[in-house]
Amino acid sequence: MQNRSGSASIAGDERSSRVAFTVNGDRRELTLDNRTTLLDTLREHLGLIGAKKGCDHGQCGSCTVLLEGRRVKSCLIFAVTLDDCSITTVEGLAGPDRLSPLQEAFVAQDAFQCGYCTPGQLCSARGVLDELAEGWPSAVTEDLTGVVRPTDAEIRERMAGNLCRCGAYPHIVAAIRETAGER
Amino acid sequence: MSAGAVGRAHPRLEGPEKVTGTARYAVEYPLEDVTYGWAVPAAAVRGRITRIDPDPALAVPGVLAVLHHGNAPRLSPDVEPELYLLQDPAVHYRGQLVALVVAESIEAAREGARQVRIDYDTEPHSTVLTADHPGLYRPEKVNPSYPTDTSEGDFDAAFDAAEVRVDATYRTPAYHNNPMEPHATTAQWRDGRLLVHDSNQGSTAVQAALAELFGIPRDSVRVISEHVGGGFGSKGYPKAAVVLASLAARQVDRPVRLALTRQQLFGPIGYRTPTIQRVRLGSDADGRIAAICHDAISQTSTITEFAEQTAVYTRSMYAAPHRRTTHRLVRLDVPTPFWMRAPGECPGAYALESAMDELASACGIDPIELRVRNEPTVDPDQGHPFSSRNLVACLIRGARRFGWGDRDPRPGARREGRWLVGTGVAGASYPARARASAATATALPDGGYLVRINATDIGTGARTALWQIAADALDVPPERVTIRIGDSDLPPAGVAGGSMGTASWSWALTRACQELRDRLGHHSGSLPPEGLTVAASTADEIRAQKPMARYAYGAHFVEVRVDAETGEVRVSRMLGVFAVGRVVNPTTARSQLIGGMTMGISMALHEEGLLDERYGDWVNHDFATYHIAGCADVEQIEAEWVAEEDSDLNPTGVKGLGEIGIVGSAAAIANAVRHATGVRVRDLPIRLEKLAGSSSFT
């Protein structure tokens, strides 16, 4: 096993697999190197460059997408494990003709500067809004049995896995809070 | 006159692209036949490569080439030692990029890089900065061209005679820029011409460096940098990625995408040097400073000299008749330090603004009042008048907004439940410079205007601010103006760095737009199909600027809450009030200032490059172990500015915003922590063990 991925003796068909999943509503069928992450699949095979590679180690959140509606770091998932799954990337957040309220709020609040972490922030924020609506508590939720309010403290805690070196955090929180209020 | 776009809030122009994932960064352009690079770091600290065996890597399916000093295309040795990559077997530091694997896929390139076998002859090394290092020397100048040492009056005598003395040594660790987008490049050669999409802070400089390195004319190189995922200084000059990708694309004769890994951003791209700084202040009992001295020690590499201007901040900040500053440097077997947000001023201000707080305590006077009492009337360093100096205005306005007035100065006096609460203040300044740039303005037959300049928007909002400035200079609504930046085919311009981007670029744009208006005033009949274009350059004007002290100023106010049991520090409130000349776009200006302050929180509490002296490399070289401030670390943070008209700067009257937000942040936090707990932390970061472990912890 130790030398498996690097050994030239492994036949080509053993190093790759066929996989089919849905991305932003479109069914995709691909033959992929078994080592290919979901992130590299999106960026290098499907032309969806929204999800960003900030660390490739699941530490920065720039690659965050929604898998079956839940936030995941796409750099930590091998694409060949995703048969029949449904994936939403930042490219799938907007409607056909206009931005989503969350995206509009990000622009209006200036919730980004360089924009590199932004697709991950947006997908993460989308997940946070859904988690809040479903009443999922977090480490800072005081009443674990009641309704979870979209307070700044809740949003900050839940967005702590998405790093932004430009320091747009207060504006990101404001954009999410504003969007939560619209629901 | 139009209503005026300058001064009005406007969302950034590229916002819709950035929130839909359609803004393209350096390795995101669609390409046929693209290949992927993966850089290989040296495992030795100091020595020579004796053998490279590429065969195991070449045996990996999909690997096309292994570039190293034995086979890479030749570069000119006369450009910059840092960029003389894959040309000789010397290893100057661990992590130096000594080979590059090119493959059909990212996966193959990565696996190939793991398989390259390299043997080294090693030599003893020295990697730790100490105040008594035998290699300490006096550089001939410090960055960018300041005198190494300065002296006026008789510091020693005045300090000895002072009624109140502060003599303290402050230390800052290595800090790593960590823009979210790594240094990344797509390179392709076509018919002897080099096209690169690159992540940098100024593609005019990248174009020039590549042309010289490869020995081809400048106009055979084109560098496109439409969107850049941050830089914070580390992309202010061409670095390894763009050179390696260009070498590889030539070698394999196919386009190459190369992004450095996050781990590779800890070293080869530079970092903020660690510092050891001794500050001495001598005053009378009322806090009037007679003697001020700042001695700074920092490090550089064996490759090239990088002499950070750590003590220069102290030369012009506060008045004192007797003053001295010195810089000493050590060449270590480490990567070369480089620019990081307010290089020099930022660590320098942490030391001086902390020492000012210590002096205020020693004199028993308010730290704001201490700064007001030591406000100079002319630049204490050169004697030049200030173009404008509104430090005191920032302090006074900030004090009112922050609620400083009823502060009990006693340390450890305020407790709210488990929290010790304290407040701190610090001053800040940063030079307001401009660099020569060129621009064109075109009037189009359809009534629109096109302005072009090779500015770079690394997230600052420069594209939007320049668009607003051009509209006002043309006296038309901004909707009629199109701006193009981020391409070395555009008129050459300086870097997005040193807080001089907007000042430099807006100057050239304004001159081009003014000239176009003049020309249009004399133009009769319809415009030709290609429109009417005028070009302007500011080289002569900037050279003719009269000598003055031009600085932005700021006052930082911080409230911290420190857990009385654990020593955990939370920054519960942070306010920055700044004097930055004219603010072009309040939306993006606020973001940039808050961003600098947030990086200041990070510097004060979280960031620390931990060196393993056996290897001269940082142990914590990823985001799991090198902590930067996250969303949950930033609570209430506000930035605002005082109205400031300064006619001695540039036509737009801007001072720049990129650095000033960070300059006083760490000192203000350290001062607040001291107020909350009684513990003065003189070596950043402020970690809980330095508080809870201290005998003076309240």
Write the SSE topology:
The complex is a heterodimer of chains A (183) and B (698).
Chain A: H1 12-15, E1 16-23, E2 26-33, H2 38-45, E3 64-67, E4 70-73, E5 86-88, H3 101-108, H4 118-133, H5 152-158, H6 169-182
Parallel strand pairs in A: 1-5
Antiparallel strand pairs in A: 1-2, 3-4, 3-5
Chain B: H1 15-20, E1 35-41, E2 47-53, H2 55-58, E3 63-67, E4 90-91, E5 97-103, H3 106-115, E6 117-122, E7 141-142, E8 146-147, E9 150-152, H4 155-161, E10 164-172, E11 184-190, E12 193-198, H5 203-214, E13 221-224, H6 240-252, E14 256-259, E15 275-283, E16 289-301, H7 312-317, E17 322-332, H8 345-363, H9 367-373, E18 386-388, H10 391-402, E19 415-416, E20 419-431, E21 438-443, E22 449-452, H11 462-474, E23 481-484, H12 501-521, E24 532-537, H13 539-543, E25 549-563, E26 569-579, H14 586-605, E27 611-612, E28 617-618, E29 636-641, H15 660-663, H16 665-677, H17 688-692
Parallel strand pairs in B: 1-14, 12-13, 16-17, 18-25, 22-23, 26-29
Antiparallel strand pairs in B: 1-5, 2-4, 2-6, 3-5, 7-8, 9-17, 10-15, 11-12, 11-14, 15-16, 19-20, 20-25, 21-22, 21-24, 25-26, 27-28
Helix pairs in contact in B: 8-16, 11-12, 14-16
Organism (chain A): Micromonospora musae
Protein name (chain A): (2Fe-2S)-binding protein
InterPro entries (chain A): 2Fe-2S-bd (IPR002888), 2Fe-2S-bd_dom_sf (IPR036884), 2Fe-2S_ferredoxin-like_sf (IPR036010), 2Fe-2S_ferredoxin-type (IPR001041), 2Fe2S_fd_BS (IPR006058), Aldehyde_Oxdr_Iron-Sulfur (IPR052914), Beta-grasp_dom_sf (IPR012675)
